[in-house]
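Here is one chain, start to finish.
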Amino acid sequence: MKVISQIKLPVEKEMELFEKKFLEAMSSKVALLNRITHYIVNRKGKQMRPMFVFLVAKMVSDGSVNERTYRGASVIELIHTATLVHDDVVDDSNRRRGFFSINALWKNKIAVLVGDYLLSKGLLLSIDNNDFDLLKIISVAVREMSEGELLQIEKARRLDITETVYYDIIRQKTATLIAACCSLGAASVKPDSDEIAKMRRFGELIGMAFQIKDDLFDYGDEQIGKPTGIDIKEQKMTLPLIYALNNSTKKEKDWVINSVKNHNKDKKRVKEVIQFVKDKDGLDYAVRRMEEFQREAMVILEDYPASPYRESLELMVNYVIERKK
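Its structure:
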């Protein structure tokens, strides 16, 4: 059995019902919008975010979920989908998970409007049901994601990222959404409890490990979702590169920064930078840090009694750092 199917097992019923509710949450009186939202739903990915919401909710409440849990999962998926649609416009990307992106099929103007529509649907789903605590969790995540992206753009221009700033960027850009899923799961079944902050931290740690794993793919030879060296071509400062720069002479540092800034389209030069990072133990260091985040996440789970939900979350934590793409 595939790992994802195994993780999903204890919340399979909830995920099936969620899909129906999610499609309802997207519906509109405008035929064009319905055509586009159907296209989005039929090309969904692994649906890790709703899975986190249901697994956490069931783990902290001895196996129960409620309507708020379904709404929380729908809201996070609506808002996440909105950010992806907008991201494809920003990145001028024609593909998403191997399929054409919304902007490739319906052009930028419609893609931006669809993203806005999904965002408003998510907000209204919370407001109409007085889920203001859930809305706050999601709104903080959206704000942080935007700030993280802008911080990364600002730093990429100067290439002066320290390890601390790098963690700030990935916490906001990637980890905050997984943190929101986990805290939403807890808040949906146990409002105003200590579980909410605890599960937020758990999600944040998984998100940090997930992003470092993504950074490591840039240096691997395996066929994955993105070609190797793409972060360097896009002038993204990732953990292996930051570590290598911090352990270089001034001459080496100048050469790397010049390569990333001015020769990032030169395949030979990009390969040399990748080799330089490997020689400076940048990859080993990043793996160590990733495993530290993973261990810390596992420690949080130890506070909960053994259950199929906890087991699935443990599998998820391991999957994040062992995945091949």
